[in-house]
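retry 2 of 3: previous attempt timed out while embedding RFL. Reduced batch size to 1 and resubmitted. Inputs unchanged:
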Amino acid sequence: MRTQVAIIGAGPAGLLLSHLLHLNGIESVVLESRSREDIEATIRAGVLEQGTMDILKNAGVGARMEAEGALHHGFDLAFGGQRHRIDLTGLTGKAITVYPQHEVIKDLVAARLAAQGQLLFEVTDVALHDVDTTTPAVSFVHRGEAARIEADFVIGCDGYHGVARPAMPQQGRQDFQRNYGFGWFGILVESAPSSEELIYAQHERGFALISTRTPTIQRLYFQCDPADHVDNWSDDRIWAELHTRLENNDGWRVNEGRIFQKNIIGMRSFVSTPMQAGRLFLAGDSAHIVPPTGAKGMNLAVSDVNLLAQGLEQFYRDGRDERLQGYTAAALKRIWRAEYFSWWMTSMLHTFADATPFEREVRRAELECVVSSRAMSTALAENYVGAF
Ligand code: RFL
Ligand code: PHB
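retry 2 succeeded.
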C-alpha cells in the first residue's frame, strides 16, 4: 500500500488532519487500534474554543456542532461560600461552546467515510519504519492480515500511550512534566442541568466541577486520589461529596439523577520536544498533555493539526518545506501558553495535600484577586476562550 500521509490514531487530531488534507487534495490513510463504536462512545472533552469552532466550521464539519452545541458566555468560580461569575463575553467579546468530543469524532468519521477516506479500525501491531528517510513506512495487522503502508510522511496522532513518540529518534529529545498527585473522579448523570453555566469550585475537601453534555445528561467531576477505585464510591457517597463541595448558603442545590458512568483520571502536564524528526511528526496528546482544568487538550490537538495541514499543503503545492520545518516552534508557542494556563487553574483550584497554611491562604487571596480585579478576570477569561 502507498499513500502520501500515514496517520496513526483516529482521535480528534488524526481524523481532522485527514479531513483537512483531503480538502487540499492530499491523500492519507488513518490507522486506529479501537473500533468505530468505541471511539464514537468514549466520553472526554466538552469545551471548544471559538478558534476550534472556526476551524471545524471552515472544514465543513461544523453543522451539527452549531445546531446542537451550547454557547456559554461565562462560568462561575465558587469558593469561600460564594459564587462569582466570570463574564467571558463581557471581558473578551468571545464565548466557548460545549459540544462533546465524541460528537466531534462522529462528525469527522462521517465526513471521512462520505469522501471515501481510508480509515482502518481495529488495527494491531502498529510499528514505524525508516522514519529517518524520505520514504517512511508503517506496518500493522488488519483483519488478521499483516500489511505495510509506504508514505511521504508519518504523523503520530495516537495519544499519550501511542507508538509514534517512542519511535522518535531519542537523541536531542527533551520531555517536560509535572504530576499533581491527584485525579478527577468523573460521572455522567441523567438529570436536567444544575446550572446554565459551568461551575469551577475550590473547597478545602478538594476541587469540584459542574459541566454539561446535553439538556438531559450532565458531566460532573471532583478531585480524588488517582489511586482510588470507582467501586469505593457509592452513589450516595458521591452526591454527599458534591453537595458539600459545591453548595453555598444561597439555597442553590446540585441536581441529583441516575449516575450511569464513573471514571477516575490522573492529572499531569507533559510536553515532549521536538514534535518532528525527519518525516515523522507528532500532534495532539501524543506530544503534550494538559490537566483538564483549563479545558485545552482537544483545542490544542485541533490547532496542531491545523498547522500541520498548512505545512503539508505548502509542501505538496510548491515543494517548499518552511512551514513544516517551523511546525514545532509554531505549535509550541501555543502549547506552552496552554500548559501555563492549565497549570495555573489547577494550582489555584485544587487542594494540595502538602500545602502549608501559608500557601493555602495565598491561594485563597489569589482567587479573591481574580474575581475582584477586572485585569485578573480578563486574563483568566482571555486564556479560557483562547483569545490570543
Ligand atoms: P486521542 O483522543 O487520545 O486519540 C488518539 C487515538 O489514537 C489511538 N491509538 C492508536 N491507534 C493505532 N495504533 C496505536 N498504537 C494507537 N495508540 C493509540 C487511540 O485509540 C485514540 O483513538 O488524542 P488526540 O487526537 O490528540 O486528542 C486529544 C484529546 O482527546 C484530549 O486532549 C482531550 O480529550 C482532553 N480533554 C479536554 N480537552 C479540551 O479541549 N476541552 C475539555 O473540556 C477537555 N476535557 C479532556 C477533558 C480529557 C479528559 N480525559 C479523559 C483525559 C476531560 C477529560 C476527563
Ligand atoms: C467537560 O465537560 O468534560 C469539561 C469541562 C471543563 C473542563 C474540563 C472538562 O475544564
